[in-house]
Amino acid sequence: MRLFKPLHTIRYSLGSFFLIISLLLPPLAQANNLSVAQVNNLVRQAEPQLKNRRIWAVGILKALKRNGFQQNRSNVCSVIAIVDQESSFRVNPSVKNLGKIATTAILKRLDSLPLVGSVIKKWLENKPTKKNSYLKIMGRAQTERDLDRIYRHMISSVFLVSSLSKIMLVRNLIENNNEINTIGSMQVSTSFAIEEEEKHKGTHSLDQIWKLRESMYTLNGGLHYGVLLLLGYRADYINKVHHFADYNAGRYASRNAGFQFVIEKLSKKSLAKDGDLLRYRSGKKPSFFKSTTEKHINEIAFQYKLRLTSSQIRKDLKKEKTQQFTQTKTYQLLRRLYRKKTKRHPPYAVIPSIQLKSEKTSRILTTKRFATVVHGRYQRCMRAR
Fold first, then answer.
1. Residue 8: its pLDDT value, please?
2. For position 2, what pLDDT does the model report?
3. Three-state SS at 366
4. What is the model's pLDDT at position 322?
5. Are residues 197 and 270 in the same domain?
6. Whether residue 315 sits in one domain with residue 210
7. Looking at the structure, do residues 272 and 172 belong to the same domain, yes or no?
8. Do both 224 and 278 map to the same domain?
9. Does residue 286 have a cis bond before it (omega within 30 degrees)?
10. Do residues 182 and 291 both lie within one domain?
11. Mapping DSSP to helix (H, G, I), strand (E, B) and coil, where does residue 50 land?
């Protein structure tokens, strides 16, 4: 008589047991998903006076599902916190005195341009008609969409957009000079949305970009790209506040600022921890000129005789906007050196020190302030019943 069952029998029994349990219980991800009613309640907690909160609840869940993210409480609360901070749940938020701010800014810029400025100013004062000129239309603008549409209308009247929009140089020139570059309820960068669309659908013409812009001013469009920007990358942050800092400063900015902290301590030289390890030209291409961060890394490598060449360092730093940067030789050697010299574990992430300039408000804005306020909204949402 055997006291124990053969091993293969035990494995079979356990397998059958877990199979039965898995059939009886719903999937873990599904069990964590929130209902429209639950999300509606969380939106109400954030904005008690909001009347169309159910539409927002449906939109948030739809955006999460469309982008392949769990509709769990953490993800929902993250989105709610950003939307509440950026627009107070308004699809196309108005900005106080926006028209006056815009006309003042453009006239000041034109006054700084000799000869050409006066010609453009006269054109703005007389087109399309003197009675209803672009300058007067601009002065009545209440939202970013208003200004965006005015700019696009002016471009259409000057250029034959239909024939020129496929020329990359013209497309980039027009798009890069559009001052309205973060839009919608989650204030998403238009360059991010364009980049994401072109990954799947190829290069966009100017007409396609303008259609994309219009979609971002809708509830579903604004949420779609905002959710993707917020949750569509992997960063090993312990504290959620660093995700919110990244939303404001750029993906992996907090991790890179943590790396800059390490560099500052090793070099014993002051260094701006802004999350950008390289200098960049227009179009997000790295500049040929070294950033202060890159210079300090080269000096550290020379001082401590690290097996790092200047070309290796540059090659590694080009991965700063990706998760793979943590696997580079530069990243790992400097963090290892920091541990050796300080006997401390180097921080993985630090909130970037960035002061934000906006003509839409007189308040002093910083990435730290943004991340802290949004994190507070997130925590209240997570605690809500």
1. 38
2. 34
3. strand
4. 97
5. no
6. no
7. no
8. no
9. no
10. no
11. coil
Cα–Cα distance between 154 and 127 in angstroms, integer? Answer: 9
Question: Taking Cα atoms as reference points, which of 338, 298, 334, 337 lies closest to residue 314?
Answer: 298
Q: Are residue 221 and residue 104 in the same domain, yes or no?
A: yes
User: Which H or E element spans position 171?
Assistant: helix 168-176
Q: In 3-state terms, what secondary structure has residue 133?
A: strand
Q: Cβ(204)–Cβ(197) under 8 Å?
A: yes
Has this prediction a pTM greater than 0.90? no
**Is residue 30 a part of any domain in this protein?**
no
List average pLDDT for each run of 10 residues in the chain, which is 385 residues long.
36 40 41 92 97 97 98 98 97 92 92 89 92 94 96 82 70 89 96 95 92 98 98 96 97 98 97 95 84 98 97 98 98 98 97 80 77 98 95
110/226 same-domain check: yes
Buried/exposed 81-90: b ≥16 CB within 10 Å, e otherwise = bbbbbbbebb
Among candidate residues 263, 294, 262, 265, the one with its CA nearest the CA of residue 277:
294
Q: Which structural domain range is residue 153 located in?
A: 98-231
Q: Extract the tokens encoding 14.
A: 């356990």
Total number of domains in the chain: 2
